[in-house]
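## retry 2 of 3
previous attempt timed out at serialization; input unchanged, resubmitting
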Amino acid sequence: MVKKIHFVFLAVFWLFSVPGIKANTMQDSLRCLKSSHNPVLPGYYADPEVMYPYKTGKYYIYPTSDGFHEWSGHYFKAYSSTDLKAWKDEGIIFDFTCDLTWADKRAWAPCIIERKIDGKYKYFYYYSADKKLG
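## retry succeeded, writing output
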């Protein structure tokens, strides 16, 4: 289990980092990024949390939805993959405007864990919002 977690962390770290290839021009840089599957997700995302739930047997990324003025993002999305290369947008999984009463912006740094409790899989999702912890 620990080896699998380390592998997932290293794989995602590699996927989110720019390859260490020397590029002489902007075109070389773009070509390197395209061939290394960077960026992994289209759009602006940060703080990726990766989980491999045993229930589904797929990888999931839970990122901060970035690119909003003054960190005013108000939702979290999820992406799934079976191979860590092709990612499917699973949509918005948590939206402050309809799922939360104590905050309406600054959705960032999500974290999720899976636990088997009484024979059933349970998921615990942690995040920050409006400078508070959820």
